[in-house]
Amino acid sequence: MTRSRFLGTGFAVPDRVVTNDELARLMDTTDEWIRTRTGIQERRWVKEGETGTELGLQASQRALEMAGLEAGDIDAIVYATSSPDHFAPGNGVYLQRLLGIATIPALDVRAQCSGFIYALSVADAWIRTGQFRRVLVVGSEIQSTGLEVSSAGRHVAVIFADGAGAVILGRAESDDGGILAFDLHSEGAHAEKLWVDSPGSMYHPRVSPQHIGEGRQYLQMDGREVFRHAVVRMPESVRAVLSSTGQSVADISLLLAHQANLRIAEAMQKDLGLRDDQVYNNIMRYGNTTAATIPIALDECVRSGRLERGDLVVMTAFGSGFMWGSAAVRW
Ligand SMILES: CC(C)(COP(=O)(O)OP(=O)(O)OC[C@H]1O[C@@H](n2cnc3c(N)ncnc32)[C@H](O)[C@@H]1OP(=O)(O)O)[C@@H](O)C(=O)NCCC(=O)NCCS
Predict the structure, then answer these.
(1) How many CB atoms lie within 10 A of CB 131?
(2) What is the pLDDT of residues 204-238, one digit of tens each?
(3) Catalytic annotation on 288?
């Protein structure tokens, strides 16, 4: 089967920079606490009126430009987001509308922080089986509107942020490059350790003044449990995806890990025994943008010349669900 490969990458973040000092004026926290516990120095939050699909559009246009393609060259969209513009329909169709591409399929993937890896695996399967030739894969999130921006929500509010990344996947012309393998997992036993309770179709009505009064519309997180599982699952998954391709950690040219928290990334780097030049982190500047962190980091690496043809790139993510997974790519 024909492998898929990356034809273009792009990302977009809102213009509004939110510093740690700004958050410290809104809740009981400090720049020092946020930097030492999470690594984050600043993040981007949307202004009222800016949407996730608009960020997704900007990221997609940059990816199309790099690929030398027009929107009309895309055969399908896979859109990963846990924070869609609306409960229904998904962001994929809004992006399709903004791009002006008539009637191509647009699928939303809901796999939270692992959304980009899962979305990539769907697009890869479509290309490998010959169903579609060029697939636009987007990871975008607006988390800022779902945060409890007060002392009660401070352990979550300081971490999450807004942004979008996009890639165009197409067919590899030879067998020596492209996406090599995926490793995907979930463990629903931990669903409520990082979740948004309401609105939900199990409630009549789906959202009520009572829910809002209780703050059930906010992203809720058991930070210690997330940390404990993340530092085990991501290295485990990196080793698994490498071993399925007959390679080992020593072969990694670049590890692009989900930017959940710098301490998680550092613990994983230590566990895997990777040098600083084998990893890339940008959480300091963007915070945790959920499904967008990996495509944003990928685009920064591509545009800064950090990746060379033939490099072995491993992408790995862990998050709400719990869901986690990795992709191994020969660049
Ligand atoms: C959220 C996280 C940074 C909190 O760090 P921690 O060392 O586990 O801290 P705890 O939650 O035990 O809290 C320690 C203290 O800091 C306080 N605290 C929490 N958030 C704070 C903030 N933003 N500012 C200042 N103090 C804060 C807590 O209230 C607690 O105070 P106490 O000891 O008086 O009760 C950490 O658990 C973490 O990084 N978890 C993973 C989160 C993550 O990556 N999520 C995304 C996954 S996709």
Answers:
(1) 12
(2) 999 999 999 999 999 999 999 999 999 999 999 99
(3) yes
Q: What confidence tens digit (pLDDT) does each residue in 7-30 have?
A: 999 999 999 999 999 999 999 999
Q: Give this prediction's pTM.
A: 0.97
In this structure, which amino acid lies at residue 207? Answer: V
284, two tokens: 């300091």
Nearest CA residue ID for atom 18, ligand 1: 155
| Selection from 10, 63, 13, 50 nearest residue 287 by Cα | 13
- Beta strand pairing call for 42-44 and 194-195: unpaired
Which one is catalytic: 20, 91, 258, 261? 258
In angstroms, rounded to a whole number, what is the distance separating the alpha carbons of residues 283 and 278? 16
Residues contacting residue 276 through CB under 8 Å, at least 6 positions apart: 269
Which residues does residue 100 pair with via DSSP β-bridges, in sequence order?
A: none
Q: How far apart are CA 330 and CA 328, in angstroms?
A: 7
Q: What are the backbone dihedrals phi and psi of residue 217, each rounded to the nearest 5 degrees, phi first? A: -85, -5
And the tokens for 293?
A: 């962190």
Residue nearest to atom 28 of ligand 1 (CA): 155
